[in-house]
């Protein structure tokens, strides 16, 4: 139990509750001393009162119980005996009437449950009585013989109920427990009341008072009026309190006196120390060097400035002569001052000498000396003061250097006062602006000839200077000659020693050159250098903007993918310079074909793209595509060449054909391929199956490359027949691809792709060689000689030395030139008339035959035709197929035949399929025919059979 009741202040926290000096030995003792006094007393009471009471009660109860059992036994025996005796006579007489009264009186006893009298004479129950309500628990049966004299005449049986005895014993126990409990409770209450009032409460009081003493609270008196032992203890405590109060009062008084003493002494010491420290601080912290020397010039003390100045430690200085640290040139002057002037006058004026640093460096100093005296006024030494002049001289040099930098830097520098009035400008400023300094100095910076946003910029500068003390940015100035130029200006403020801005310093660099190159870089990043059109990246941005606009307006856009047909041929034949010129010219024409708001870009090579940013229907895209076709159809006159270039255009519509740039471009590209496949020089709208076609083309291209390597091609030959004789006079070599998986593939499936991908040169060369070889082989086999016509592609014509190659083929195969005929389409010739004419001349001079294929489909003028040294004109199948039904085609075919005749050329009609066509051509005096009506293209062996037969083809 705590002595400090709840709510009472505890002792000073620094004073721990006192612990017993040592713990009593044995766990029982330790436990006993751990419990509170109240708990200990309760324990004692319980053990001292309750246990003996219970013990006594237990003995008492046992004795009473034994006596009750004894009594019951006695009573039972007595009742049995009385009844046995009383029944003798009635039993002897066999008179139940006489026996009944006694039986009834016995049954009145509440312990008797039943009585039964058995007659041995009659061998039956003589009398019987039962009280069933009394049968409560255990039953004790007592029997006794009934005798008359020596003869037993009957037997008595009595049942006694034992429960009554148990109930009485239980009541007895309960009474004992109640008695002991009451006795115990009363004892405990009485003991605790007495214990608390006489012992525990005063003890608590004593504890609180002791706590006051421990906290040095002596003011309140401890009042004890009882005469018992605790009262004595309380009074002793009160006496202790008074004693302590007196002692503490005295202690405090003494303490106060002592503190006054100490304070006074401290003040004196403080004053002493302070003056000494001030003197020392002055000595130590002085930036000038101070050292104390005796009258002989030996150093006694030196401050850190001297040590730093000379680069030595204190021990390297003390005891040495000051002259050891002075440059020898100055010894005499110094000696004069320190040993003559100072001792005589008490001081000397400043003079300049040089000190020697430990590393040998000479330090210019200004020196002076003051005589040091003792209390009696006698000279005891000299205060020597030296001031380092290096910094001042460095500062001077820095100033000179800064002035040089200021004047000679290539950046213009403008210094203004705090109100932005120009104080000075450097030479670079004058060079940069063309204004002399007298034109600038004294003016406000706002009066500087600048072109743009002067006032707003000054406000911005002022705001930044206030916030950060610096500003930098681009400004535009105007030179004296009126030229504007961009500058990069960095403005810093300079502060005076009070921290106020006193000047602004602006460093100005002319960035016109850098800006020009930045703009150039920007331009190169966005535009195609050759054509000036947006490049791929920039064009994508433009398309994305157009798509976003279309989304906002719920409108549509169109993307036109343009690829120039056979541009490679031009590039290869006429060189890259002409190719580049052509691309530039095409770009110009494309730009001219567009409305404002639409854009054209170059993706690379000969690929151009147009985005039509707002269209109401795909027809508008078709209109633009048509316009592009028309604009490009006009020949380009470049480097002395008249060039015709046609485009193939693929059109993708947003959003139907792609919802983003990549998809749109991909699909327009696929449509462009379709345009190429559809004969070039046209436009096609994208359809969903075109991509599959585009992939197919790619696949064909890669397979073609393999086919070239493995020579997977064969030639079939289609006879050309003289209309008058019906004899075979020639044959056209037509290529087929012996595809390992797809079988024989016709040229229509791969020649356009080979042309587009530049593979046609290798294929065409193979055809030339194979046709020449086969023709020679037939001749060697004795077959009638004929000319074999071979189709030439534009690339073959332009990319290589076709004359040299054919000469090689003829030489290798041994075929005479006159048995090889070259078919060149009209469109090839028209691509570059000048060089074609030259090549055809050369081929002709080699003895080769020349035919103009597909005649009538191109744009050849009669003037050009006159210049070609062709042998034959080949009327295109498209005209032949509709004769004689179509009057226009009849007229054209007739005109071509007449033209050939007038130019002295042979004429052959191709694609003759019907007898009517034959008859029409015969009537028009066409020389030769070629077509399914006569013979389809034949494999070499079958063609050989036809030649061998040598028979005229039956006339239809
Ligand atoms: N550069 C090269 N081009 C070649 C070569 N071999 C063929 N080709 C060109 O491929 C195109 C298709 O040729 P092909 O499928 O062989 O068709 C030729 C004939 O089979 C076909 N023809 C002939 N008569 C008839 C006819 O009565 N009806 C009809 N529907 N078609 C017929 O015409 C093609 C020959 O045409 P052309 O060359 O214009 O004389 C085709 O353009 C070939 O030029 C090659 O080695 N190199």
TrEMBL record:
Residues 349-401, 471-523 form the PAC domain. Residues 697-951 form the EAL domain. Pfam families: EAL (PF00563), GGDEF (PF00990), HAMP (PF00672), PAS_9 (PF13426). Residues 197-249 form the HAMP domain. Residues 241-271 form a coiled coil. The keyword NAD does not apply. NCBIfam families: GGDEF (TIGR00254), sensory_box (TIGR00229). This is EAL domain-containing protein. It comes from Parachitinimonas caeni.
